[in-house]
Amino acid sequence: MKIPEPTPDSGIKQILVALDTPGRSAELIERAAMLALQLQAGLTGLFVEDINLLRLAALPFAYELPYDSLPERRLDQLLMERALRARATAIQKHLASSAGRANIPWSFQVRRGHVLEELLASAPTTDLLIIGEFDQTIVSAGDRPSMLRQILLHSSCSVWAQHCNPDSTRAVLVLYDASATSNRALQLASRMARDDTGQSLLVLLPPDGSPHSQKLQQRAAQHLGHDHLQLRYLPLTEFSASRLLALMKQQRGRVLVAAEETLATNPDLLQQLADQLSFDFVLVR
Question: In CATH, what class is 14-161?
Answer without folding.
Answer: alpha beta
